[in-house]
Amino acid sequence: MRMFEPPKPAAVLLLVLVLWYSAESAIAVPSRSQLHQDALQEQRPLVFAQQGNGEVVEIGETKGLKGRFLHITDFHPDPFYEPYTSTSSDNACHSGHGPAGYYGAETSDCDSPLTLVNATFAWIAQHLASEIDFIVWTGDSARHDNDESIPRTESQVIAQNRLLVSHFRTVFGKHNGDEGDDDPTNDFTVPIVPSIGNNDILPHNIFEEGPNHWTKQYASLWRSFIPEEQRHAFEQGGWFYVEVVPDHLAVFSLNTMYFFGKNAGVDGCADSGEPGYEAFEWLRVRLQLLRERGMKAILSGHVPPARTDSKTQWDETCWQKYALWLRQYRDVIVGGLWGHMNVEHFMLQDFHEIDWNVLEVDGTGEDDSNQGSTKKHEDGEFGIASSQDYLKDLREQWADLPTPPPGMFQEELVKEALSSISDDARPEWEVEHFVRHQPRALKAKKTKEEKQREQFLKEIGGKWHERYGISLVSASVVPNFFPTMRVFEYNTTGIDLQNAFDKDGKTGLMRAEEVLQRLAQNQAVDEQLGEDSDDEAAERKKHKKKKGKKSKRPKFTIPAPPSKSTPPGPAYSPQPFTLLGYSQYYANLTEINNDFHDSSLAASTYSSAAEEGWQETGEAWMDWFGSILKWKEGKHHDKKPNKSKPRPKEFSFQIEYDTRHDKLYKLKDLTVGSWVKLARRIGTKEKIDDATISDDDLVTHLEDSRSLIEEEGRNVEDGKEVDTEKKHKHKKGKKKKDKKKHKKNKVWHAFINRAFVSTMDPGEIDDKYQ
Ligand SMILES: *[C@@H]1O[C@H](CO)[C@@H](O)[C@H](O)[C@H]1NC(C)=O
Ligand SMILES: *[C@@H]1O[C@H](CO)[C@@H](O)[C@H](O)[C@H]1NC(C)=O
Ligand SMILES: *[C@@H]1O[C@H](CO)[C@@H](O)[C@H](O)[C@H]1NC(C)=O
Ligand SMILES: *[C@@H]1O[C@H](CO)[C@@H](O)[C@H](O)[C@H]1NC(C)=O
């Protein structure tokens, strides 16, 4: 890196910041309480309040927070798409004659027609625009290079990205006439945080160290989204952040191209010469600043930190740093939002997997201590994994989650029992009393249980499951399945926006960022490297003890952990900015395109396409062999439309499921603890009457088991039905199933169904995902 120099330990940097503040009082950063006091003293009305992207408005005009935001990803607009062309790999919905629908060829690898993009924004304008506080938009906003006769060009990639920006402007632009002023960031009604996808650059998957052509292109294209003071940093690395709730919450756009294992232009995050290394330095300093200011952060980016035996997206050194950062800043980070894989799912980052042998590799390229990890994460080694392998791997991981001892939540059971006797809920003290005065036998048992309970809590990182981080992957707009998007709800209790801005309409964080930018350009400061903070020293010492003599000094500053007195962060315990739930929306293109209604006709061919053909769209399709691999032709591929002109129905998204009311997932919120419980339920394979099963939510568990039994009964019936009605269908699969009589884990099946946005035939899920 030319402009950014090597590590800046947080302690030194912050000290410098403090000095800088006192030296330059003109840019002093007022604390929140200071501002508050000023306001009180002057007895002036609190005139400053945020509106959307940080514009300062009079308090009377404040819209207030809606407590919702949109996550949307992977549009892949394709201006060459033509309806009623062929979905085959040779045609890619550009030519030939076939089933490509007016709004897109669902379940195929074709890209999105502009009609779909248009209709999606029109729908958002009508149904969401006034309901959300900000937008996380995680990239891949250009078509794939999927047609030899129309190769992708740079001007296409940019024009398609520009098209999407203009759509966002149409729906979320203020249109107040000041678009021409010198502040492009005040043109939108809500903050929008885009990130760079692997198809937003050329050649796709290759992204070199910045500043480069592409970082400059996007600095220009996204000038309305990137805060002024970060423009320069963005040109360096393609990363930035936005205070989506000023002085309270920031969304980070990470440039995952620098973490992406497939990016041949860079090499991981361990070597201080790599942009991936710089990305984590940049992120650490900002997260530290947010911590100091009592703010929270959502991380986002295009390529998710997927890491299973069959599929790994990031270079291992980047994953390691990410996990370490998540752990150290677990008081700040709300969670991670990602796109790219098109399969909707979630993943847990297990902090026990943090491996100092990987983190400590020095820059010489010698890797005597990290053989295990490099081997595992060599890209070509897995070949092209199917979604089936990947999702099953996830389940295997989750099957190994620590299980609470039976009876761990006895108190809750007692409470439940008590409350069902009487209409009045029993007070805490009464329950405690009851438990304490149980018969001796029970009591003796309980001390043993108590031990197990302690052991369990130790294993999962305490009551709030602080052993894990959470990453949520949304499926795409491009209809590899059905077009989809997510609206999150978050906790806005007690969030006070009144003192977010100073008299110049700046937040403390904006001030600090200005200083950081100046420091970055003032290279002299970067010389001040060196001393570990106490926390770092302690961390290193701990590590040394574990690893013995082999320890090498890490070449990076270890982020400071939360202080001992800091309560758990919003990812762990319910508080402001904790994610409460999300609604997953989808557009049923089969219905809307209105071409093929007899879905049973295509069921068999389609389902195998959905399950085997998954390839992160275009990712693998020319990977290593230079030939087309596993192109998905979609469920209608063998059909021809019976019309000369498309007659689509009215376009609309509908709710696939809403976690706040979902009886299968039972997520009472989106804290890590809730996800761990869900993951454990998905991972469960034993039969329900096995005494070995336990769950920390026994009631949930009983319900699950009841549905397991019901499901099985229904399956057999279904089987008969199918056998008599459609003898020729799924014959093989059915037979197998009847013989095996597998117990069905309803939650796992729901997870699979949702991974493919409800496009997969339930019978197929039964067969393939036992
Ligand atoms: C999309 O909408 C714009 C106007 O909003 C229109 O000019 C354009 O023709 C539309 N494109 C398609 C493909 O429907
Ligand atoms: C939101 O946060 C508040 C206070 O931090 C908490 O009391 C409340 O229970 C939370 N709400 C939900 C729905 O979790
Ligand atoms: C989508 O629409 C088709 C055709 O109307 C219907 O058969 C199918 O069940 C629908 N799927 C979902 C998930 O809504
Ligand atoms: C096309 O659909 C019409 C009814 O909409 C039907 O009468 C006709 O037989 C169909 N033609 C073919 C070739 O399927």
Automatic annotation (TrEMBL):
User: What's the Enzyme Commission number for this chain?
Assistant: 3.6.1.10
Task: Give this protein's Gene Ontology molecular function annotations.
Answer: endopolyphosphatase activity; exopolyphosphatase activity; phosphoric diester hydrolase activity
Q: Where in the cell is it found?
A: Vacuole membrane
Region span, Disordered? 523-572, 709-747
Task: State which residue ranges cross the membrane.
Answer: none
Q: Which SUPFAM superfamilies match?
A: Metallo-dependent phosphatases
UniProt family annotation: Belongs to the endopolyphosphatase PPN1 family.
Protein name, as recorded: Endopolyphosphatase
Q: Give the organism, scientific name.
A: Viridothelium virens
